[in-house]
Design brief:
Nucleotide-diphossugar_trans, alpha/beta, 7-stranded mixed beta sheet, 16% strand, Spore Coat Polysaccharide Biosynthesis Protein SpsA, Chain A, 300 residues, 9 strands
């Protein structure tokens, strides 16, 4: 299979130290500056990593043309169309995909592509092991020491326990039992009419059930690790300072993110149309995490 060939052998000669996956369910035209910068930041922190963008549209001559600047720098990235039956062979996910293709499953009102992306990331990690990232996640630091990790999006202010997890960043070993439980939950409880039911809410449901059980070795990282700003406040990272008070706040927030976060989720749905203002936190992050440092614009 192409993916195995791309990652290569496990020998010491292999240059693929980290396996990264992204999924892209939209057109090539919509794979723009933000997505490319997410790829830049990944390679800035992991120059010896390998990235597979699992996408039908990007797995094309035009798609590879978009990725060619990375290849010219010797970075290892490719696009490969998804093969659901191969990924989910001998799992309950295989039967679900089969039923979907036969028209026996109601896809619902939520984008089927989004829900297939939720499933696809689970299959990729289960089959190969590695690191999954959404295309609006900016990587700040190496994930080299992380193993079997998922991140909390929010915590309960009183108990300090997580209240919701998110599936935009996941790091897991191949065939990890928690991934199998995620796939099982997707197939058994799929609902195409509830946003998040098959994604963030799914991983939250499963982790709440298996926490403390023997055989599940994983860590839930606090929101600061991957989600230092929640979706309803993400706009604050794009704003430049308006006055001295705001300037001080921006500096403190930037220092907090730089010291305490491994990545920043940009919550694309809420922030896609925002301009990157001069002196903003995002502008500082872009200058720190770029590979092509003279090529980005104010529209991320």
């Amino acid at each position: 299979m192409r993916m195995k060939e791309f990652f290569g052998s496990k020998s010491s000669n292999s240059s693929c130290k980290f396996r990264f996956f992204m999924t892209w369910i939209s057109s090539i035209e919509s794979f723009g500056g933000r997505e490319l910068f997410a790829v830049e930041s990944l390679f800035k922190a992991h120059p010896n990593g390998c990235l597979v963008i699992v996408s039908t549209s990007m797995d094309s001559p035009r798609g590879m043309q978009v990725l060619n600047p990375f290849l010219e720098k010797g970075l290892r990235v490719t696009a490969i169309s998804p093969d659901f039956m191969y990924l989910f062979k001998n799992t309950i996910g295989q039967a679900w995909i089969d039923n979907l293709m036969k028209g026996n499953i109601d896809p619902g009102e939520v984008s089927l592509g989004q829900n297939l992306s939720n499933l696809l990331r689970l299959g990729l990690l289960y089959k190969f092991g590695g690191i999954y990232l959404d295309t609006d996640v900016i990587v700040l630091k190496s994930f080299g020491k992380l193993r079997n990790v998922i991140g909390a999006q929010t915590i309960d202010v009183e108990t300090r326990n997580w209240s919701r997890l998110n599936n935009a960043v996941m790091i897991f070993d191949k065939r990890h039992p928690l991934l199998y439980k995620f796939i099982e939950e997707f197939a058994l409880t799929f609902d195409g009419n509830k946003w998040g039911h098959n994604g963030p809410y799914l991983v939250s449901r499963v982790v709440s059930r298996v926490s403390g059980r023997d055989g599940y070795n994983f860590t839930v990282f606090p929101p600061m690790a991957f989600y230092p700003v929640d979706w309803n406040r993400i706009g604050s990272l794009f704003l430049g300072p308006r006055n001295e008070t705001q300037s001080k706040w921006l500096l403190l927030k930037l220092q907090q993110i730089q010291s305490g976060s491994l990545a920043v989720h940009l919550w694309n749905k809420q922030s896609r149309e925002l301009e990157v203002e001069e002196g903003s936190i995002i502008q500082h992050i872009m200058s720190d995490c770029c590979v092509f440092c003279n090529s980005y614009s104010s529209k991320l």
